[in-house]
Every structure is written in structure tokens, then in C-alpha cells.
Specification:
Helix content is 38%, strand content 7%. It has 21 helices and eleven strands. α14 links the parallel β8 and β9.
Length: 565
């Protein structure tokens, strides 16, 4: 475990802490790279601050990255393989998913790097020359982050090495703790952090503090943790009750609120700091903090804009541009997502606001040969004319022929042509080849808090209360005047409704694999709804393989591989 155990001295730790780019959106939580750092640097006010900022940077390795997206959205009931891209073993559940896959190793090592930085700040806080109030606050933040990192690890890998003290010298002595031990550490860290985290909601923090952990973020994470723990080997009778309590606290105690319009949640620029966002992983337009290096492996910006796009740029009347983004074609929505989850488009605005359906010509011409629309052989387009339209339902040949543009209907969808998720599109990039997006990644938002509350209450037999929670999300998603039509009754609430509602609200937001694992139906639903993964998925895929590097670096074979890998 190179990144976890290679900190030979504080000089190495502090330098690594400074090199890690941290949460750097809008020039906050950003470090300046310094050389010749001594072992006592972390004791100084600036060193202590730099180290605490650096602990956040491991979030950027997982969220809004190819690594994290691959391990959370590939191979689920709502996304299958697109035409291009690497890591298709995560779509197909075949032998390409193994212990040698580099992104598995990278996520493992970077999360442990973050954990070790948290451990260093916590242990060295007493000697730091800062106020007691600052020490308590930063230690609370480190506990939030350490819990967050272990929560990702335990969901992906099961029981892992539980290290709550700083690792300074290389060691081959590691072991796998039980899931119960991991969850005990996670909940202990989060619950002890609550007393010292600020109560101010994220969107009201000062510019120099925006992006740091808050009490509402810790309570949201606790709600998610207890909801997940309730179906794990560490489950306890009161897990759902605790999940509901923490979720309700977030809803009631912090002046957070759902935005009136679903689409506005994902508005770029200043819109990302809004009353629905509880905690975000920050990115920046500064190219110096977006450069990916072998040392950090996490400074490459928010890249989610790359992976959900269809191949619009080779279609008649179109060429690649900044506004429509680079179509890497990695994830194609399943038929279940498009036709079952998003079936209601009369009352529910989320299909229209989730998927891009219109492309305007940026490469005009006459006698343009069509490719996916056999209702016409050639067409003429002027700049700004509609070139491609995706109605989301079948049209007859006659209906399509009546339009002066191409109409892509569901029967013509392919691995390269399909509705494009538009939540993460990034038209602010400086040129059409630039990959390092600058959007903040919205890790926790209030709509999910309501959905956690609804699920926890439903599992506790409180169906009426659960219905009220889910209706809050559904009313917000309604087209104007359709709010009442969007509400469901307690008789209509079941787990299928909860599963669909999470897909409607959270599609693409790095949660679906975690959800399916929590529900215990990953295999069942992949077999039902994902033609790419159906043949190979099995129960062993509820965990990922432990990186081979970790196994090889552990003495006497003490770190066992997960079954089936």
C-alpha cells in the first residue's frame, strides 16, 4: 500500500500535503507548494492549516473522476456500456475486473493517503501553535473526512485495514478489520465531530471556509452511513431510526431548502453554491491546480462532463464544440432508466431537465447525408437550425420525415447514440479539447436527505411519514401546476418506488452501485435491466477485488483477497 505506508517522516507527509491540490474552487482551500519542509512544519499555524486542507484532496480522486464514476455507475440497472472507453469489466463483470486494475489501486491508495493525513493532523494537533478553538475545529474536520474515506472503502471492499494513528515508517504488517469495526470507527468519528463542527449551512460560510465540513454535512453522512449499515454484516436494530433522526435534523435545523427548479441545482458558476447543497467537492478554473501528476493523481478537475455524451459530433450539421462537450461515450442509459424510471414526462420535469434532447447546427451545409434517420436521405441546415432532436418516444417515419432535421428515436439508439445526461456539461472550458472541468461536485444535497429519510422511515414501518418525505422531492420535480399530480399516497409507496425515485433524482451522481449493494439486489437488477452485465454478474461482485499491490506488500499473505477474485 504505497501511499498509505510511504510516509517516512513528517517532511514527506507535509510536502505531500502541500502538493495535494485540496479543494481549490474559487481559490479557497488552496495550498502553495513549498520545498525544504521540516518535521515541525505541521506545528506552525500555516503548516497546520496546509495539512488540514490537504486532507480534503483525496475526495477529488474519487468524486467527479473516471475512477470514482467507474466504481459507482458502471454496471448498474440504470447505466450500461457506451461505445468507447476503458474499464469495461465494470460494465460486463468479466475477468477485466481484477486485482490488477489501476483505478482500483489508485482509489485505494489515495483514500489511505487521505486517511493518513487526517491521522497526522489529529495526532499532532496538541503540539500545534494555534488556538484551542482552531485545533478542535480542524480535528473535527479530520474525523469527518476519515469517516468519509473509510465509508467509501468499506462499501467497495468490505473489511479493510483500520488505521487510526499516523503511519510514519513503511510497514508490511496489515490486517483486515471486520465491517463491524469499520462502521464503529466511522460512526464514532462522525458523532464525536458534531460537537465541534460549525452549524452554519455550507452556502453561508465565508469565502475562505466554503467547502469545509459542517455539522449538517456530518449529519447527512451519518444518515447515509446508518442507512447503509442497516443492511450490512454490522447491522443493528436501531440503524434505520438513527438514519431517520440524522436526516430529519439536516432538513429541520440548518435553513437548507430544496430549490424551486430541479435544473437550477446544477447551474454552473455561482449557482453551484445554493441552499440545497450541503457539502461539495470543489474544483477550479486555475490550470495550476488542475494538472494531474504522478504524485497526486487527483488534480485533474471535474471530468464527469466527458463520460455521458453521445457521438453528436460526427452527425450531419454538427462538429465538436465547447458547448456540447467532448463525447467519450462511456455510459449509455438503460432502457429501464429511460422508459420505466422516466416514464412520466407529463407531470415530472426531470426527464427533460436531466437529458439533452436538442443539438443546434454548428457545421451547416446543404445535401447533408443523414445516418441514423432513414426517413430522409439528405437535408439542408443553416447555422443555429435544429440538427438533431431526441423526442424520447417513438415517432413514425412520416412524423420524422416532416421535420427538417434528424430525429433520433429509441429504436435507433445505439452504444454511440443515446440521450445525453446534461447535469455535468461544462461549457466554461477554455477550448473544445480541454478535459479538466471546473464544476464543483455536489456530494451531498438536500433532495438526497429527503430520500434517505423516506427510505429509513419506510423500513421502520412509518409509511405515512415516508410518503411525505418522498413527496417533498416529487413536488419540487413537477412541471408548474402539476404538483398535486406528482404526489403519491402511502398505498403507492414501496421499495420499487424508492429505487426509482433515487434514480430519477440522482442519475449519474455516483450513487447507484452503492444503492444496489445496500438494497441487496445488485445481481437481480443487473440481470433484469442491464444486458451488458446480465450474463456474468454474481454475488461476489458486491465487493471489488483488493488491489494486488496491497496483498503483495503484506507479510505472510496476511491480507486476503475478496472471494471470487
Amino acid at each position: 500500500m504505497k501511499s498509505q505506508f510511504s510516509h517516512k517522516s513528517l517532511r514527506v507527509l507535509a510536502l505531500a500535503a502541500l502538493l495535494l491540490s485540496g479543494q481549490a474552487c474559487k481559490d479557497v482551500l488552496k495550498e502553495t507548494v513549498i520545498s525544504n519542509i521540516g518535521n515541525d512544519y505541521i506545528k506552525t499555524p500555516k503548516g497546520f492549516e496546509d495539512a488540514s486542507k490537504a486532507a480534503y484532496s483525496s475526495l477529488r480522486n474519487f468524486y467527479a473522476s473516471e475512477r470514482g464514476l467507474t466504481m459507482t455507475e458502471y454496471g448498474t440497472d440504470i447505466y450500461q456500456a457506451g461505445a468507447d472507453g476503458s474499464y469495461k469489466g465494470f460494465h460486463f463483470y468479466d475477468t477485466q475486473m481484477n486485482s490488477f486494475v489501476d483505478i482500483i489501486q489508485q482509489v485505494w491508495e489515495e483514500l489511505y493517503r487521505g486517511i493518513n493525513t487526517c491521522n497526522a493532523v489529529i495526532e499532532r494537533a496538541p503540539a500545534a501553535t494555534v488556538s484551542d478553538a482552531t485545533k478542535k475545529l480542524r480535528v473535527a474536520e479530520m474525523k469527518f473526512l476519515r469517516a468519509h474515506y473509510y465509508f467509501i472503502l468499506v462499501q467497495q471492499f468490505g473489511g479493510v485495514d483500520l488505521r487510526l494513528t499516523e503511519t510514519i515508517l513503511p510497514t508490511k504488517k496489515t490486517s483486515r478489520a471486520t465491517e463491524a469495526d469499520i462502521y464503529k470507527s466511522i460512526t464514532s468519528d462522525l458523532e464525536s465531530a458534531l460537537a465541534d463542527l460549525p452549524t452554519v449551512k455550507a452556502s453561508s460560510q465565508g469565502a475562505s471556509d466554503y467547502g469545509r465540513a459542517t455539522k449538517s454535512a456530518a449529519e447527512h453522512l451519518l444518515a447515509r452511513v446508518y442507512l447503509t449499515k442497516a443492511t450490512s454484516s454490522a447491522k443493528a436494530a436501531d440503524d434505520y431510526t438513527k438514519a431517520a433522526t440524522y436526516a430529519q435534523n439536516v432538513i429541520s435545523n440548518y435553513s437548507l431548502k430544496l430549490l424551486p427548479d430541479f435544473a437550477s441545482v446544477f447551474a454552473q458558476g455561482g449557482g453551484e453554491i445554493n441552499d440545497e447543497v450541503i457539502f461539495s467537492v470543489q474544483y477550479t478554473t486555475d490550470p495550476l491546480t488542475n494538472i494531474n501528476t504522478a504524485n497526486t493523481n487527483n488534480g485533474d478537475g471535474n471530468k464527469l462532463h466527458l463520460y455521458f455524451g453521445m457521438q453528436y459530433d460526427v452527425q450531419p450539421g454538427m462538429k465538436r464544440d465547447i458547448a456540447n462537450d467532448r463525447p467519450f461515450k462511456r455510459l449509455r442509459p438503460t432502457t429501464y432508466l429511460l422508459e420505466t424510471v422516466f416514464k412520466d414526462r407529463v407531470n415530472d420535469s426531470r426527464y427533460k431537465k436531466t437529458f439533452k434532447d436538442t443539438w443546434l447546427s454548428n457545421n451547416p451545409g446543404t445535401n447533408l447525408n443523414t445516418s441514423f434517420d432513414n426517413s430522409k436521405a439528405k437535408m439542408t441546415l443553416k447555422a443555429g437550425d435544429t440538427a438533431i432532436y431526441i423526442p424520447g418516444v417513438e415517432w413514425t417515419v412520416a412524423q420524422r420525415a416532416a421535420k427538417p432535421y434528424q430525429v433520433l428515436v429509441p429504436s435507433a439508439y445505439t452504444a454511440a447514440l443515446f440521450p445525453t445526461l446534461q447535469k455535468f456539461l461544462d461549457p466554461t472550458r477554455p477550448d473544445l479539447t480541454y478535459e479538466q472541468g471546473s464544476r464543483d461536485y455536489l456530494a451531498f444535497r438536500l433532495a438526497e436527505t429527503y430520500l434517505i429519510l423516506a427510505e429509513a422511515q419506510f423500513k421502520s414501518g412509518k409509511t405515512t411519514e415516508a410518503t411525505a418525505a418522498i413527496n417533498a422531492v416529487r413536488r419540487r420535480a413537477a412541471w408548474p401546476g402539476k404538483e398535486s399530480a406528482m404526489e403519491i399516497t402511502p398505498a403507492q409507496l414501496d421499495m420499487e418506488m424508492i429505487m426509482q425515485e433515487r434514480a430519477r433524482e440522482l442519475a449519474g451522481e455516483q450513487m447507484r452501485w452503492f444503492d444496489l449493494k445496500r438494497w441487496g439486489n445488485l445481481v437481480e437488477r443487473v440481470k433484469l435491466y442491464n444486458p451488458d452485465g446480465a450474463a456474468n454478474v454474481k454475488e461476489t461482485h458486491n465487493l471489488r477485488p483488493i488491489p494486488q499491490t496491497q496483498i503483495d506488500r503484506t507479510e505472510n499473505g496476511g491480507f486476503k483477497q475478496n472471494d471470487g477474485f
